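INFO batch 0412 | record 1 of 1 | parsing
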Amino acid sequence: MKNAYWILAGLLALFYLYGGGVKVVRSREQLLPMMAWVDSTPMPAVRAIGVIEVLGAIGLVLPPLTGTAPWLALAAAIGFAVLQIAATAVHLRRGDRQIALNAGLFLAAVVTAWTATALL
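INFO prediction complete | emitting tokens
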């Protein structure tokens, strides 16, 4: 169970570290080709989402790795599942029906949360 956690958490952490980092450092014009929702979202909100994603990625890896507050990994995984529910709602509200990535990330976050309980 711990091996499954580390594989899933590592993949999710890499994905969110990259995605969040991009939201933090790139301009709206640079983000638009990858993320159409950015055009109708204030940049401070986009930056805040990016920071949350980076912190969540750190939360998936660092606490279990150090043995300090491993419950934070469970909280981060649940937070990513909630984030994907909200992201799916944004995509559907915009008329974008391509939510397969959101569904896959939601499923990965739920399974990561489930496997994180083995760390507690």
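INFO post-check: The helical segments are 2-25, 28-31, 43-66, 71-93, 100-116.
INFO record closed
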